[in-house]
Amino acid sequence: MKVGKVLLALVFLINVSLHAQVGIGTSNPDPSSVLDIQSSTQGLLAPRMNTVERLAISNPADGLLVYDTDDNRFYYYDTDGASWDKILADDKTRDNYVLVKNEADFPPPSGGKIVLATNTLYEINGSITLSNPIDLNGAYLIGNDTNEDVLDGNGGTIFSGNGGSVRNITLTTGTGGTVFDINGGGSGSFIMQSSIVRESGNVGTIQNCALIFMNVIQYLGNASGITYSNSGNLLLNNQGWFGSNGGIYETLTGSFNLIEKVSGFSQVIAAAAALDVTGVATIGGDAVLQSVVFYGGGNYINGNSPYTGYNFSNDWSVNCPGIPVEIDDNAGANFYYDGDITNGFMQTVSNGNAVKIVGSGGSLNTTEANSLFRFRTDGNNKLVYEGTKTRDLQVNASLSIRVRGAEENFYAFIIAKNGTVITESNSILRINNDLDIQNIALNSIVTMSTGDYIEIYVRRLTGGGDDTLVVFSENLSIK
User: Fold this and answer.
1) CB 321 within 8 A of CB 289
2) What is the pLDDT of residue 44?
3) How many CB atoms lie within 10 A of CB 29?
4) Residues 179, 159: contact at Cβ < 8 Å?
5) What pLDDT sits at residue 216?
6) Residues of the chain with pLDDT under 70
7) Partners of 197 in the beta sheet?
8) Residue 407 buriedness (CB in 10 A; 0-12 / 13-18 / 19+)
9) Where are the beta strands (DSSP E) in 284-379?
10) What would the 3-class secondary structure string for 77-122 be?
11) 294-331 exposure pattern, b = at least 16 Cβ within 10 A, e = fewer
């Protein structure tokens, strides 16, 4: 028996030497291989050792392969770098990462909700049908393909509870369902980007957040829209509302520090409105609506502007196609004397001081204001600026007048700001006689801040006694 084994070994070695190949599990090793191992039931087991043992290998050869049981990694030795390198070293995983292929991959429901682990990344893979709403609880929920990675509320609510972050996901609930029922508790935030909200009964409510940031969102086929309430900073960028949506697309209520809605579009066909701001109580900082396209022919804005033909309060700066521009740069107003222009009104002029033209002796200056935007009238011959930013405004005025008892004397008509005449606006004329009707034109560029007001004054420059100023027309415009 021993002789037979020795002869067999010699034959094997001769065969290896002749062919320079070894086949294990095969009698026909691949010609390109030195060692060809084939099996459908077993694998190749590399040497296994802990880190201390691996590092204790003396003079490791270039490419030497071992499996480190401490790191659960394969290592190979690189003689150029004199180092042990991990195989697939860049294939890193997160400790706070969960791949979600069905609802069971989420944490078990608690109190009727799926409460996610704070600061944990949940990756949606495919379409997930929910039987419980998700409380984001400060977690991150993402997909890789917005059209393929879907959360379906199945007629219920998708998100209920605190805020978090959502990206690259389609959200849908079907008839009667609600996408958002989020309350940040005053300090939480909700961020959503590059997602689709479609075919839901109600997009829902997001409220009491320190920050709401919605960026690149498409809305399609939702029966009613979304309400944002009582939050610090509301940032809505590139929101796309298609004409298949119903109700009021976006409703803002309560108090905000900053509102910024920029770019995107609202196609309004059968919906009640694209944007409703009638419920906004206060804005601590600024409110900006810019470059959002409103089209479709429906009702675009439910607003609360104090000015005819406009939609927003003075807190807003609005510049969007489809709706009126509302910025302080466009502030303007007019007033005109609306009494009997044949007889005009009269005012006694007695001294050399500049006085406001108001009329006297029962003949009063009655002016009518119109085309008011970021201005209001405060009595006759007075326009008050209500814009929030300081602006340089062009003021133009004209009067038709007659002065009795002042032949050959000189008069000045002047624009006044806050009761102080603007000297450079003076228009001087000489009174020829008691019958001449003369025309005066005034203009000036006036720097105005909130609450500043404009009036027209008159001053007698020469002469004494009492003169009678008769004003047949008085017009003033600010732009």
Assistant:
1) no
2) 84
3) 18
4) yes
5) 98
6) 1-20, 88-94
7) 171, 219
8) middle
9) 287-290, 293-295, 301-302, 316-319, 332-337, 345-349, 355-356, 359-360, 363-364, 367-373, 375-377
10) EECCCCEEEECCCCCCCCCCEEEECCHHHCCCCECCEEECCCCCEE
11) bebebebbbbebebeebbbbbbbbbbbebbbebbbebb
The token duo for 100 is 């979600």
Token pair, residue 466, equals: 């009492």
Amino acid at 377: T
Query: What is the rounded distance in angstroms from the CA atom of residue 219 to the CA atom of residue 242?
Result: 6
348, amino acid identity: T
Instruction: Give pLDDT tens digits for 265-304.
Output: 999 999 999 999 999 999 999 999 999 999 999 999 999 9
pLDDT of residue 34: 76
Length of the chain counted residue by residue? 479
Which H/E stretch holds residue 472? Answer: strand 467-478
pLDDT recorded at residue 183: 98
Bridging pattern class, strands 48-49 and 65-68: parallel
Global confidence as pTM: 0.79
Q: How far apart are CA 362 and CA 365, in angstroms?
A: 10
* The Cα angle at residue 280 between residues 276 and 282, in degrees rounded to 5: 155
In whole angstroms, give the CA distance from residue 377 to residue 303: 22
Cβ neighbourhood burial of 219 (10 Å; 0-12, 13-18, 19+): buried
Amino acid at 214: M
Residue 20 has phi, psi (to 5 degrees) of: 55, 35
Task: Report which of 189, 188, 140 is spatially closest to residue 168, judged by C-alpha positions.
Answer: 140
DSSP letter for each residue of 23-80: EES-SS--TT-SEEE--SS------EE-HHHHHT-SSPPTT-EEEETTTTEEEEEETT
Inter-residue long-range contacts of 366-371, CB under 8 Å, 24+ positions, other chains counted: 366/337, 366/338, 366/339, 367/335, 367/336, 367/337, 367/338, 367/474, 368/335, 368/336, 368/338, 369/333, 369/334, 369/335, 370/333, 370/334, 370/335, 370/336, 371/332, 371/333, 371/334
Q: Which residues pair with 85 in a beta bridge?
A: 76
- What residue type is assigned to position 414 of the chain? I
Give the torsion through C-alpha atoms of 440, 337, 387, 457, to 10 deg: 50
Contacts for 94 with CB less than 8 Å, ≥ 6 apart: 121
Helix (H) or strand (E) holding 16: helix 2-19
Cα–Cα distance, 42 to 242 (Å, whole number): 58
Q: Specify the pLDDT at position 92.
A: 57
